[in-house]
Amino acid sequence: MPERSSAAPRVNDFTLKFANVNGSGSASANALVMKAIFRTGVPVVGKNFFPSNIQGLPTWYEIRVTRDGWRARSGRIDLMVAMNAETYARDVREVDPGGWLLYDSTWPRAALHQREDIRAFGVPFAQLCNEHFEGARARTLMKNIMYAGTVAALIDIDLEVIRGQLAETFAKKPKLVESNMKAIEIGYRYAKEHFECPLPIRIERMDRTRGHVMIDGNTAAALGCLYAGATVGAWYPITPSTSLMDAFHSFCSRYRTDPETGRRDYLVVQAEDELAAIGIVIGAMWNGARAFTPTSGPGISLMEEFIGLAYYAEVPAVIFDVQRVGPSTGMPTRTQQCDLLACAYASHGDTRHVMLFPDSPEESFRMAVQAFDLAERLQTPVFVMLDLDIGMNDWMCPDFQWDDAWRPDRGKMLTPEQVAGIEKFQRYMDPDGDGIPYRTLPGVSPKAAYFTRGSGHSKFGAYTEDSAEYQEVLDRLTRKFRTAAKLVPPAVVDGRGAPTGIVSLGSCDAPVREALAALRKSGVAIDYLRVRGFPFGAEVEEFLAAHQTNFVVEQNRDAQLRALLTLETAVDKRKLRSILHYDGLAMTAGFVADAVGKALAPGVAA
Amino acid sequence: MSSMNKPKVANPGLPRNELGLNRRDYEGSMSTLCAGCGHDSVTAAIVQACFELAMPPQSVVKLSGIGCSSKTTAYFVSGAHGFNAVHGRMPSIATGASAANRHLRYIGVSGDGDSLSIGVGQLAHAIRRNLDMVYILENNGVYGLTKGQFSASADVGSKSRKGEANEQQPIDPVLFALTLGASFVARSFSGDKEQLVPLIQAGLAHKGFAIIDVLSPCVTFNDHEGSTKSYEYVRGHSEAPVAADYIAPKQEIRVQYAPGETVSVAMHDGSSVVLRKLDPAYDPSDRTRAAAYVQERALRNEYVTGLIHVDTRRRDFHEQHGTSESALNAVPFDRLCPGAAKLHGILSAFR
Fold first, then answer.
1. Which end of chain A, N or C, is less packed with Cβ atoms under 10 Å?
2. By C-alpha distance, which of B259, B174, B165, B253 is closest to B212?
3. A284/B122 CB distance under 8 A
4. Chain A residues closer than 8 Å to B58 by CB
């Protein structure tokens, strides 16, 4: 990325970072700052770096202010709000040259003096809180709100916008609006009186956030489940997927509860483990309800046996895998795209599964809806592959759209009338030649009855140990998988005939697009394909064939997308070059641009 | 082979139930279990229970895990959907199926390996949920399909066919279920159809989790001397403190019960279960004392059989969740989807 000097005025284009202790209430102060910028019409990117812990460990929050509307991390820090004594030295080191540091000057901070290339502002937050507020808890909370006020003065956020937010948040507790506003104003005034405000990095009103929301992918996916008509949710709590079911539950209690009787058109089961969670989903979808489970890598590992049953017995299921850092327990609160292979081939025997790769919360909403249609149309498990970055961070997205004419695609499910009209029901035939059989629901008619089993079965649904009968069904499943390649959302292709391409997926899209723009500016043209579904469609094969070099950008160590491409397409694997990011933090555009730039530099073999 | 087709032979002389169906209409495919297997008698008892209750075959859902016992769901009510799940995980499939449609009758068949070893966790949590189903545990103390290993229900000192004695403490499914607060707990013997059929009927009438531990000897691997799960041993060591008679909703009570000796339990579907106390001190509504009674008898090498505990007041899975009366798989889409106008309102909270 081009070097920038922090000294030049950079209106609506800079990054703030807040260093806090978790469990101290800092999240609401940071969200207040981000929302205020968003409500001033300026695009923002928020990233939360939090520990796997309830209280007392370091946590950071990054807010990138981006007038151009980029969606990735910037990879730089212009203003650090260093409120955690424990990480103070490290936080000071991280500020980019020419940047600023805000700290609590109630206590001396020796480490500060080691840097002469940044400017530091000390505000005695703790002391001011002790003077103005009573009680230990209130003082801790108000200290956070107070630094939000100081930041507002430094980067020129309109206090009325903040007041409006507080009034909404505490609509039922007006006293809290006043006490919070008091803290904001103390912090704000202190900055105005002691420092030259605003800084060159500052906010100026724009109109680029109208028609947008700030929402996380788990909430968006939950909304998709609500709109798709899912009625059964089963889960076992696991970071970072938990908030998906929490959101579904809360949407349902609002929109699916009979106001008079209190009866609910949904059922959420907190299962005893992930094995049971997927079993409940399979049982419910087998019996005709739309059901789903949100989980993460360790949950996928536990679900594998059942996933194989659903694949072979052809039972729909929808699984949201909000990927986190592995292997094993790994780093539960950090992001990665490390379950691609585990999900693609989950379970023993010959199994292959349908996957969807949303790039944002907005697409998580749409793909959640699609996942139910695909699962029922194809009668197979469908994985929606989110990651922690999409699932748990607030992203600025265009308003979600909904077509009231939309109806669920229940696939080849015989209605009671159709059952009445048939001679004999046979479960695993392929009358349409697309590999997809017909199914019936329990409770309809003795004529519709069939036996579902994970043991060898013939196309008639009968138990078999006959080689030819077994193989016939297995071969039909291969045909069905080919049909799936035509039904999953096609890849997004941005091709202008360049000899080099980038292939990527999911949350990599934001940094890749920004890197492509930067590379184009410096005269390097590269085509781009973003995979959105698995199995891969013909357009993926064509793109790989059309480019001499394809950089495969993904967030895992073992190049799992590249492995899938070599296994499932005809591409010569020497044409695929990996760019891998797997430290657990969301990737930046700079990382991608640097890696591509280095690979394409003269003297480096392409 | 797990099942073979069995031709339906019309026999006009067979008695018919209210639906005009005869007993054969409640059968399934041919059993492929060993000749004399206790499980086949349990299958016959299920067939009889469903026939006598005149259950529409499609109103039944059959569920099982993996093992000899789990094969038997193919051998009864061929007009019902069946689901042969993975080993030990039938309760989660049953939970999901029940969640989707609360109006069908769920009959689960499992074994001691499927329920007490690999599936002990799922069984425990199905009991805790008070899932509305009948869970028949065909208990023979041994793994049959893998040729004779002890199961978790094998008693201390019980001998394998090779003469080796088990030293590990057994899990008694009845005590296990009582401890977890099961709302209907019974035990029977595959060789005692007179006791077993009314227990299955009472279990089907019960709204909640009805577990029936059926001692069902394995003729091939666990029917020898020294085994505590053999036909001979179970016959000689069973004792029922209470006999249960199932009385259908509109059925007249014909038997004259002596006053003070019977308790009539009203079931949710209008039927009742009349309990005849064979041991006057026994109270099947008292869970704690029922458990103590079972343990005391076990020390005397006796299996307590019959309806050991019943509590019709416990709220079942759907009542706990406040689910709509309509089956969730049949709620009209318009009732499920809030629509475009409301989406706009929902999103306004995210600005």
1. C
2. B174
3. no
4. 442-446, 448-449
Contact B344 A399 (CB under 8 A): yes
DSSP H or E run through A544: helix A538-546
Best mutation site among A169, A272, A287, A372 for testing chain B: the one with the most B CBs within 10 Å?
Answer: A287
| Cis previous bond, A327, omega within 30 | yes
Average the pLDDT over each of A310-324, A356-370, B8-22, B103-117 and give the range with the smallest value: B8-22
Residues 6 or more apart from A17 whose CB is under 8 A from it?
A60, A61, A62, A63, A77, A79, A80, A81, A91, A94
Examine domains A10-202 and A215-398 and report if their fold is the same.
Answer: no
Q: How confident is the model at residue A2, as a pLDDT? A: 42
Are B331 and A265 in contact (CB < 8 Å)? yes
Domain residue limits, chain A: 10-202, 215-398, 416-473, 492-600
Q: Which of B263, B174, B166 is nearest to B215 (CA)?
A: B174
* Percentage of chain A modeled with pLDDT above 90: 92
The answer to whether A272 contacts B125, with C-beta atoms less than 8 Å apart, is: yes
B336: which chain A residues are within 8 Å (Cβ-Cβ)?
Answer: 226, 229, 231, 256, 265
Q: Which pLDDT does position A605 carry in this prediction?
A: 52
Phi-psi group of B261: left, alpha or beta (phi > 0 → left; psi -120 to 50 → alpha; rest → beta): alpha
Q: Where are the alpha helices (DSSP H) in A345-466?
A: 361-378, 388-392, 416-421
Give the 3-state secondary structure of B113-178: HHHHCCCHHHHHHHHHHCCCEEEEEEECCEECCCCCEECCCCCCCCECCCCCECCCCCCCHHHHHH
Fold classification of A10-202 is: Pyruvate-ferredoxin Oxidoreductase; domain 3 (3.40.920)
Q: 3-state DSSP helix/strand/coil percent for chain B, to nearest 5?
A: 35, 20, 45
Q: Which of A141-145, A264-268, A284-288, A536-540 has the weakest average pLDDT? A: A141-145
Mean pLDDT of the A265-281 span:
98
Q: Write phi, then psi, for B143 (nearest 5 degrees).
A: -90, 115
Number of H helices, E strands in chain B: 12, 14
Question: How near does any CA of chain A get to the CA of B266, in Å?
Answer: 26
Residues of chain B contacting residue A213, judged by C-beta atoms under 8 Å apart = 347, 350-351
Coil/strand/helix, residue B51: helix
pTM above 0.90, yes or no: yes
| B337 touches A: beta carbon within 8 Å | yes
| Chain B positions in Cβ-Cβ contact with residue A215 (cut-off 8 Å) | 347, 350
ipTM of the complex in this document = 0.96
Class of domain A215-398: alpha beta
Q: Minimal Cα–Cα distance from A222 to chain B, Å?
A: 12
Measured in angstroms, the CA of A281 and the nearest CA of chain B are apart by 6
Class of domain B23-330: alpha beta
Take residue A77 and report the two structure tokens written for it: 């820090």
- Residue B211 phi/psi, 5-degree rounding, is -100, 130
Other C-beta atoms lying within 10 Å of the C-beta of residue B221? 25
The CATH topology of domain A492-600 is Rossmann fold (3.40.50)
Q: Are B324 and B331 in contact (CB under 8 A)?
A: yes
Interchain contact B153–A (C-beta under 8 A) = no
Domain range list for chain B:
23-330
Mean pLDDT of chain B: 93
- CB–CB of B104 and A277 under 8 A? no
pLDDT tens for A409-438 read 999 999 999 999 999 999 999 999 999 999
Contact A289, A234 (CB under 8 A): no
Cα separation of B19 and B16, whole Å? 8
Handedness of CA B286, B289, B295, B297 (dihedral sign): negative
Q: How far apart are CA A21 and CA A141, in angstroms?
A: 12
Q: What is the mean pLDDT of residues A371-393?
A: 98
What is the pLDDT at residue A115?
87
